[in-house]
Amino acid sequence: MPLASPLSPLHPTLPTKPDERLQWGQLYGASTALAIASAAKITSGLVLVVAEDVHSATQLEQELAFFLGQNEVPILNFPDWETLPYDIFSPLPELVSQRLLTLYKLSNIRKGVLIVPVSTLLQRLPPCCYVDVNSFLVSTGETLVLDETRRRLESAGYQCVSQVMTHGEFAVRGSLLDIFPMGNPHPFRIDLFDDEVDSIRTFDPESQRSMDKVEQIEMLPAREFPLDEQGIAQFRQAYRTQIEGDPQSSLVYREVSEGNALGGLEYYLPLFFEQTASLFDYLPEQCLTIEIEDARDYASLFLEQVEARYEQRRYDTERPILEPREIYLTADELAAQLNRGASVQTKKHEIASRCKGYADYYNFSTAMVPPLGLQARAAKPAAALQTFMASQPGRILFIAESAGRREMLLDTLHGFEIKPTVLDGWQSFIESDLQLALAVTPLEQGLWLKDAGLIIITEAQILGEKVRQERHRKALESDPDQIVRNLTELHI
Questions:
Q1: Nearest to 281 by CA among 49, 479, 125, 420
Q2: Which residues fall within 8 angstroms of residue 238, CB to CB, at 6 or more apart?
Q3: What pTM, to 2 d.p., does this model score?
Q4: pLDDT-based confidence at residue 489 (cuts at 50, 70, 90)
Q5: How many CA atoms lie less than 13 Å away from 20 in the CB half-sphere?
Q6: Burial of 477 (0-12, 13-18, 19+ CB in 10 A)
Q7: Per-residue exposure over 49-80, b if at least 16 CB sit within 10 Å of its own CB, e if not
Q8: Whether the Cβ atoms of residue 363 and residue 328 lie closer than 8 Å to each other
């Protein structure tokens, strides 16, 4: 039976047995992220958070970063490819870089939070040994033979170019080796003295100017599949075995045979390996899984979309495709993995009784923050906010999206005689005794912890649609290329 009194997200109840499954209910707004952050602090191993979709995963990551602050709990994300199933376009190199870096880190992580959309969790991945075998360190003072290193980089999927601009590229100019390794935010310039690494510096890909000196860099593979001789041979053999028809009539088969990585080759990943893995294979044994409410329903919906895309594209003889079960886990395989080990399922609304398959359930002492938006044309524009503050004893933390927005929100609140103190984050707020405070973070949802008397009110809850419109306008101003003023401006 659940506890007689509701729990606080600051002190959640966790599974105590290796295979125990619990449910958490009545987690409104950002209280889900707060409960996960609290769980991550007291969990000795990794916490896997399965989000419903990409947007939910991004929002959760922002909320967890706010609640964990500078706490020694690293937050990892495993991003989606952000392409449609069976697409003929490849993911952005930055996304592949982040994915490979996360896979690399998972082999050594002891504590942290990993956030992943359920559609991404369904993807079949390269075996664990692939990332380990194709990763290596380069340090100052060690021996580095350029010809050997060049062959090693090309076998790991890196492309030799005249000028390095993006992830997965390298260039050789005399005694200099420029490279943009996967998993790194900056490219590096390695200066050699004969066959010894004399120095390693970051550099700006736009100006090509050298910047800060570093002692070593980690080199990850450039792709999630190998395009070396062995990888190509494995692909050709598997292709002829699994796909009917003349292989030479297939553009994919011909391009890979030539060593070219054409767009959308990620959806042929299983052909490069004798056996694939899933993200579950990369996780440490001690792992707590937290499944967000409708994640499994979203998985079923996604697999239906995959099947529909498969039916649309399966008859293309030039680009024959693999069956969905070759590329993604089935719903049953996903359920079997999620049901293993200690796990928690979160619910937004109150849970009335124990569900089949779960050992227990716990409702939390949270509530929805009522509508508090300013009404510009009303006699008292802030009446809803002022009435709520007067009727609810508790400490309130206002949230602004940025430093600039903070100043505007402060001016707005001061106009209604609401004067919060500016703090640097959540931890500072809960450690203080301030009744009104304000912090900066891109938080979309507020929360209300009734028992603890803590309330978060976001800028969007006060200013409403105006904030989202302003955010979109600023995004366009920062990237004018997003604006298409005439159809003649569109180019391939």
A1: 125
A2: 270, 271, 272
A3: 0.84
A4: low
A5: 11
A6: exposed
A7: bbbbbeebbbbbbbbbbbbbeeeebebbbbbb
A8: no
